[in-house]
Inverse folding.
């Protein structure tokens, strides 16, 4: 049972109507009437950021989703079902597939680049905050790794800039789109490789799409084929490398 859910829930119809999950507070007639969605989001924020409600939910046996990430016992055997349950609506997948297909027409290898800045300027003392020029240098080094192939890049970012700033790289991105974050996420999951700073966002794209991922750990980072690996659970790559719980 899921009590509180994100407003993007309608982007995942298979999840919303899954036989394994129940959403007792999902009432479309109310949410789309007047100020329904804003009222719901306000209620969600207040309840999920209250120590009193935390105690009540703990007593009732509820858990916040973030705190379930350590239970990975059945992830691999459940992966085929998870792919079905968490497949976004067709409108999103068609756009994602179309973007990757377009890049495949002009290249041999499509690399997804997750650019996360914003809050990363302060998170972990800015350790994983990179300038846009740093990202261009990362892409040039990826091109050098696969110099026998024509590499193109899909850019995922919530910032407003043209992909043309990445001189020397073939890049594409979506403009402002409905469900932009979900569209970017699942386009990353269709790429051949993914690079980006430590984030649960790129981790999910790698996991659900079974795409090799390489985290960007330093500005001077160089790439090897062995450095790319699929995410098998929140804390582990397929190659055995462990991910710290930042």
């Amino acid at each position: 049972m899921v009590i509180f859910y994100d407003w993007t829930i309608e982007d995942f119809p298979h999840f919303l109507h899954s036989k394994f999950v129940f959403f007792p507070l999902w009432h479309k007639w109310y949410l789309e009437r007047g100020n329904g969605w804003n009222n719901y989001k306000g209620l969600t924020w207040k309840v999920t950021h209250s120590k009193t409600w935390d105690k009540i939910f703990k007593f009732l046996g509820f858990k916040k989703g973030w705190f379930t990430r350590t239970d990975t016992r059945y992830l691999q055997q459940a992966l085929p079902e998870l792919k079905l349950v968490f497949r976004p609506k067709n409108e999103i997948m068609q756009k994602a597939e179309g973007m990757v297909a377009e890049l495949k027409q002009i290249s041999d290898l499509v690399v997804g680049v997750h650019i996360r800045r914003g809050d990363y300027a302060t998170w972990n003392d800015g350790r994983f905050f990179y300038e846009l020029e740093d990202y261009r240098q990362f892409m040039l080094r990826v091109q050098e790794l696969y110099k026998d192939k024509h590499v193109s890049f899909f850019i995922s970012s919530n910032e407003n800039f043209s992909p043309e700033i990445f001189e020397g790289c073939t890049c594409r991105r979506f403009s402002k789109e409905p469900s932009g974050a979900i569209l970017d996420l699942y386009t990353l999951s269709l790429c051949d490789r993914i690079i980006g700073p430590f984030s649960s966002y790129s981790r999910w794209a790698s996991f659900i799409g079974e795409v090799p991922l390489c985290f960007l750990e330093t500005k001077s980072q160089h790439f090897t084929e062995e450095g790319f690996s699929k995410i098998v659970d929140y804390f582990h790559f397929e190659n055995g490398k462990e991910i710290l719980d930042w």
Observations:
- The beta strands are 109-114, 151-156, 170-172, 193-196, 213-215, 231-233, 236-237.
- Residues 90-106 form the longest helix (17 residues).
- The radius of gyration is 19 Å.
- Residues 7-68 form one domain.
